[in-house]
Amino acid sequence: MRSKRIKKVMCCAILVLALLATCCLAGCGNKSATNAGQTGTTNSGSTGSQSSGTKTSEGPEPVTMPISDKKITLTMFCILDGKAALTLQSLEENLTMQKYEELSNIDIEWYHPSSASTVGEALNIMIASNDLTDIISNITSASEGLDSLVNRGVILRLNELIDQYGYYLSKAFKDYPEFYRQSLTYGGNIALYPTARLDEETRYFESFIMRGDWLKQLNLDIPKTVDDWYTVLKAFKTKDPNNNGKDDELPFVSNSHEEMGVTRLGSLWGINTCLFRWNGTTVIDGKIKFSTETDAFDEYVSTMRKWYEEGLIDSEYLSTDATGWKEKVLTNRGGAFYGKMNGGIGTLMGSFDYSQDEDFTLIPVPYATTKDGKSYDLYSQDIFDNGGCAISAKCKHVKEAIKWLDYLYSPEGQIMASFGVEGVTFEYDDKGVPHYTELITNNPDGLSMVNAIAKYCCCRH
Asked: pTM, whole model, 2 decimals?
């Protein structure tokens, strides 16, 4: 069946909010918050009648197109992804969004903050003035927690609304009970229509990445253990794999961003060393521990010190931003790093000057097997993608807003959000598997594949 094949090839089970390219945190609200005062009562924009928000005996209403018989407009606050901003002034210009407007009969009026760095300030001003858009992405960049915003009546509690109108999301919650639990705030609210990665295959979009041509030249295998990693990085440092006769190789280059560099190497010991937020914890013998309290953390730190002293880790790892580490790879010096598979491998291989090295190849490196013989996968259980869209209490078309978001959990909606418009940005092969067209893979305007996807398809990569 086409739908089953589609499920396996989707880059992620995304709502349109996943195309908004920021991470929101459900569950970051006030622990003492309760559900008091939030009944799910809402206005239906198409009928003007009151809806109690209670689940019907038949379950949520199915989503059919068009969502509204009469053309309506919803306003939406979100960041314009940096890759999309290279070619678009607004998502109003995006091909897939235009197609979805035609399909749903719902026009989205987009409100984009001037930059990612100003999103929190813009949200705080919007909330303080009570001049709210109907749908709000990126809301966890605001100063106030989700439960507090629900309890104050700034945004709606969505639990009952999803029971009534969230046909596809309700099915996802039923099929993946852990996804439902992950979507709840401390106060028991669903405050965001959540993004998700439903299939396990779709939960891997970042990895360690390594120069495959250097491994081949030095007759080395992809590292599988901590000791293997040391062997590979040492060889990168001492055996001149870029063949320029200089000691200029940087075996491991790191992005100074908290999650995208040296901290990721903690996974080689089976611990999460991204300590700047909740994910600095690990489970040992069935108990949650802060990673710094483990013996593995001590070994990680001492090993990182050894590798740094031996020049295996770039000495500028604390000050090198996303542009900097890419430059080190593109100038044929960086040997390994942590990054996104498309934004890392795809972008860099598409940007490399192959006159430097015609064999330049980047390959993903699986999570290593630690000394206890286990391969630790720290991330595949996170179905909730830490993102989503809130619906403001000012919204006059709540039912339609829910269904507009919910459709993108349907098989057809997921394909649209990920691949765009059939016949333009993708085609199905004879097995029913979607493939990007040359508009994306060999863009006539010279856009990289990542930037072409951002321009036409709106999928976050």
From this structure: 0.65
